[in-house]
Amino acid sequence: MSVLVQSSHGWVLDARSFIDQGYTRCIRCKNNQKSRVKCCFKRQYYYIVKSHNSVNKSAAADGGNTEPLQKTDKPPKKRKRRHSELNQGEVDSQAFHEKIRSVIKEGTKSLVDSARSLGHLSGMSDGVTEPLPSQECSLAALCEMAKELPLVDDEEQEECTQLLVTEDGCTSHVDLFSRVTENRTDLATVVTLMGDEYVIPPDAGFLLSDFTRIQPLVHYGRRFDLIVMDPPWENKSVKRSRRYSSLPSTQLKRLPVPLLASPNCLVVTWVTNRPSHLRFVRDELYPHWGVEVVAEWFWVKVTSSGQFVFPLDSDHKKPYEVLVLGRYRSSAAENSTSTSEVPVEDQRLIVSVPSALHSQKPSLSDALKPYVGAEPKCLELFARSLQPGWTSWGNEVLKFQHTSYFTLTPSDDRGDAPEGEATEKPTASPVRSPGESVTVPPPRTDA
Questions:
Q1: What are the chain's domains?
Q2: Residue 434 predicted with pLDDT over 50
């Protein structure tokens, strides 16, 4: 379980524990040979021991993403402020912060105190000494190249899904860019795709594409009960660093959410601390899709000892990000008489140690379970990783599944399955075909 503490204030989550529990049983397919391995996400990515008490002023308040928090002996360079007066965006940010400050402060203290009483967030080292590996993801570049490929008409494309693992348990060629690829087995699988190894969780589906090739997801044949998205918001910090391609807010309206959402689907959007983005989601984006705003939650980022990663009242980066939760109100939902919908409480906190990897968010699966019913169909948009049982879409959808982020060790744990066999789930959705080396089109971007 990734939930360490739950109360009326919210949850304390162990994000790395959630990742690892999806890989307790794993098969590695290489050169048509299968072996059992144990996969664990590298501990050093979640070993955040030091709070940032000073922040480079160039990191404007509009960029809520977590930066790698590494120790440094060099103080940040100070830049002179051009104007003594706050601009409108800064005034709005300050007003929003004052509005929610007590909720963040009091709720976090209560949750962290409860976690410490149970032995969590103690700040104790578990021997993590390895440096963070550097791994550049080329998936977005591949997606950009794939834009040059001719689009396939809906009538011409007979199959929009394919299997990652064949019936004999091996992988073969897959088209990652125009079909949803599924691992329909109940084992995690390490496979070779585009010359690199990736860890694919059990019962997971994914599509590597951007807006120009999102149609296979629409034709996938699923309506989802939960849709979570982490858009690549535009902000000055991202433009300067060029870490990824950002997306103008208005372009988000192109997402076919009404074609993907089931009646009363819970829609959750990660929003940076830029007030204009929050207003856009609440006042334009959700109404455009027919989604009713039901709550605002906050992800509070703390160190391994439970301290805010940034000062709560910092003028620049804040130790929290906003999530806007809404319900898709289709005509079918309005005419339904279902009384099973669980009301979503407002201003709940998700407290966790953030990843040192840029833009890697904690999974919300365990926290959202009460609000989406039993065995929900779940979708993540703009995903950079996969989750067991979820469908994921994005131009870097496999980024954090690369084996460089994991520690792989041989395992003789055979579990329930016969040796070397990945059992196929009889109830899995219509899907795909294999993947080892890939005859794939080049890619594109979310943007």
A1: 3-66+88-125+135-410 (3.40.50.150)
A2: no
